[in-house]
Amino acid sequence: MHLSWPSRRHTTRAQHPPRSHAPRSPPKPFAAMANPNQDRLAAFFKSYPASQHPSRWNDLWVAGDFIPWDRGSANPALIDLLLHPSDATYTLDPPKNAHGKLKRALVPGCGKGYDVALFAASGYDAYGLEVSGVAADVAKTWLASHEAREGNEGEYRTQDEGIGRGKAEVLHGDFFRDDWLEAAGGLGLGFDVIYDNTVSLQLIWNRFTTLT
Prior knowledge:
Blueprint: H1 35-46, H2 53-63, H3 76-83, E1 104-108, H4 114-121, E2 125-130, H5 133-143, E3 168-172, E4 193-194, H6 199-209
Parallel strand pairs: 1-2, 1-4, 2-3
């Protein structure tokens, strides 16, 4: 699967402390959550093999009473990156390529689609990916709403009429499989930006908890 990453500018090499030989602790996703939420989410997956995790995510969305990762809006850091690039640590190239076509952004684990809407408003053809069919349907419904073109502070409004607004689509599939790619244009097109806000870390955590 061909996936291209965004360019990063103004980066600074971090200074790393001496390497320790002590056993490593597992990654801690969702650091902003309260510990009870972390523990509850980890326990929800702990007794299940990784092959059943997609259905477990779907179960959470079906129940709808424990979705602690849903903050109700796009990630503030992504808002700064796309709408206030002069204040961001990293910057992205313009959303149009050399041929005048809109670049493509992928948001795996997109939830209700807040970040997908933000990319579309910023001029990208944005594709959200959800392993939960229920979550994908929820995101499609939200993206079709008026709220998805407005936002709390206008962040979902079209940001540059000269560039225009990109697509905002949601696909149902597993990021680690290729069967969803056809609906996004196929392998050949790739993605110019892949935006992952903790989903890969959570997948690592889920696999760790099944082994402990």
